[in-house]
């Protein structure tokens, strides 16, 4: 099957990488809307229009399943798009449920983008899951720009995280939710900032498990095609960066 994955940029590669590990026998079409990243500071309607354009493109390229590998785009677009297209459209959501299970009765911190945190979808999720008011949140939208620029330097990221988290008592948190698909690219920095034993979780595994429900046959030509700016990517800085991220160690 052809599985179409879209993101505002390179963050969705963290989802694609999980797919390649768990569902390798498929053809993947990955659309990076890097010229419009980040989505997290835009209006809901603007994000919807950008997401729809990317989804339309992937469908024209033959995608059988669409994965919105972006928490912000999912919040702004998934429900509306499911009302338009007669095909599986799978989104992301902050992994609050597994984070609560892993936190050993301590608090949970959700790190996400500005738009994700102010969407009703996020607050509805808290209403259902956070019955004991254990969840806090922090806007780390700037990490998206760091990732898109290829800036993963500890000398940049660690001071930024320390500044953003200066008013949080980090020892109170049993788990941290990486509520943007770009954020797992900085997992090691989060692990360095938070006390040993803090569980770092993201939503990629849950998304891949959801994809499994719709996969009915293997592809005859498994592999990956990258797209950006309305055309396939075969070379260039963005193409090279995508492959570097796919080949990175870890989860």
Give a brief rundown of this model.
The protein has 251 residues and is of the alpha/beta class. It has helices spanning 13-22, 44-60, 71-82, 96-102, 114-118, 120-129, 142-148, 154-164, 187-193, 204-212, 237-247; strands spanning 2-7, 27-32, 65-68, 89-90, 107-112, 135-139, 173-178, 199-202, 223-228, 231-233.
Q: What would your notes on this structure say?
A:
With 251 residues, the chain is α/β, with parallel strands linked by helices. The protein has two domains: 2-92 and 205-247, Rossmann fold (3-Layer(aba) Sandwich), CATH 3.40.50.1860; 96-203, Rossmann fold (3-Layer(aba) Sandwich), CATH 3.40.50.1860. 42% of the residues lie in helices and 19% in strands. The chain has eleven helices and ten strands. The chain has helices spanning 13-22, 44-60, 71-82, 96-102, 114-118, 120-129, 142-148, 154-164, 187-193, 204-212, 237-247, and strands at 2-7, 27-32, 65-68, 89-90, 107-112, 135-139, 173-178, 199-202, 223-228, 231-233. It has a six-stranded mixed sheet, sandwiched between helices. Strand 7, helix 9 and strand 8 form a beta-alpha-beta unit. The model has no long low-confidence stretch (mean pLDDT 94).
